[in-house]
Amino acid sequence: MKVEIVKLDDFGRGICFVNNKVTFVPNTIPGDIVNIKIVKENKKYNEAILIDLVKSSSKRIDAPCPYFGICGGCTLQTLSYEKGIDYKKEKVINYFKKMGLIINPSLITNDTPYNYRNKAQYPVGLDKSGAPIMGVFAERSHEIVSMQKCFIQNVEAEKIAFAIYKFIKEQHIPVYNEKTMEGLIRHIVIKVGIRTHEVMCILVVNGKKIPHEQELVEMLVKEYDVKTVVKNINMKNTNVILGYDNVVLHGDGYIYDILGDYTFKISPMSFYQVNPTQAEALYNIAIEETNLSKDDILFDLYCGIGTIGIFASKYVNKVYGIEIVPQAIEDAKENAKINGISNASFYDGDCKDVVLNLKNSGMKFDTVVVDPPRKGCSTEVINLIEEISPKKVVYVSCNSAT
After folding, report:
1. What is the pTM (predicted TM-score) of this model?
2. Given the residues 71, 150, 201, 398, the one annotated as active site
3. How far apart are alpha carbons 121 and 342 in whole angstroms?
4. Buried/exposed 119-143: b ≥16 CB within 10 Å, e otherwise
5. How many whole angstroms separate alpha carbon 275 and alpha carbon 263?
6. CA distance 307 to 259
7. CB 25, CB 14: distance < 8 Å
8. Is 398 among the catalytic positions?
9. What is the pLDDT of residues 135-183, one digit of tens each?
């Protein structure tokens, strides 16, 4: 049927109405007149696919990426960067409006909207003919789309990933088959220090030994000056990319990067913001808006490798960082030491347990910063913050809906 797209949903899909029912159409934007086919009906909404574009919206531009609409990564490429910013601002306003709160947020745009990522993750598997393939997962599936260039990945990381993939194919190293759980190479992960230019290669494997392992390492070090190569062993039937066991094949198993005035150590399991330029802006704004004082005690929940707490340390009396991932806390302690910070302590454990122990020891709570995963703060942490009743709460979020 022919319809007009009237707005975008939270995931960048176009919305139209069919018989007064909300209908989602990926790869469309407001103002498009399109022919669609409904492929799934639910009680409250329909899901449709785009058949063809009858008349383009005045807002539409050509997507620069040839994989747009196939890869599930960038959903706003048919909008200009400025129009994309307007959409994101409106989305945030609407979330708060649903809660009865009227806000007028400021948006800090990115001077480098392309090739900004410091981490590239490529699944490796088999295509429909049984041949090895590397790329990205198609939207809402585990089908790998082969791609030669990604507009948001670091250029050097991309070159290195393809060099590894070429080596795997030339040496006939078996790749992972999700259906049979056989084969070896599952993912290629590249981490880059954007300011230090240090590179870490992580080979995620369904086994213990990679054929021609030393040859691969020598090629990466000689041709790409890779600082460290790590073999990550993941033999579980899981969607989680990294397993818990890391074997260092070259170097010391970590790289460094610089954010603001600080140097951070990054290991295979470390969470580190993938857009470092914007992360620096984000942390500075969070600290400025909080109006910290030298008497304040700051709690950094979900602290990762300690980035926010370390940024805030010079403005407060004491920082306590809490994170459930042990490796991240080891890195946070090391990062405090590297940067000569003596007023930050980091604890490995569940936020609720650690904070309650500190509360019972008579600790006061001036400011709490949370930077949780996309699913948001757990109910326990929300209740805990209410219980300890800090003067200020800062919520750093990668998902404004939460």
Report:
1. 0.90
2. 398
3. 35
4. bbbbbbbbeeeeebbbbbbebeeeb
5. 16
6. 8
7. yes
8. yes
9. 998 877 888 989 889 999 999 999 999 999 999 999 999 999 999 999 9
Listing from the earlier edge strand, what are the strands of the sheet with 199-205?
A: 144-146, 132-137, 119-126, 185-192, 199-205, 228-233, 245-250
Token pair recorded at residue 98: 């649903």
How far is Cα 336 from Cα 306, in angstroms, rounded to an integer? 8
At residue 182, what is the residue type?
E
pLDDT in tens, 259-308: 999 999 999 988 888 998 899 999 998 888 889 999 999 999 999 999 99
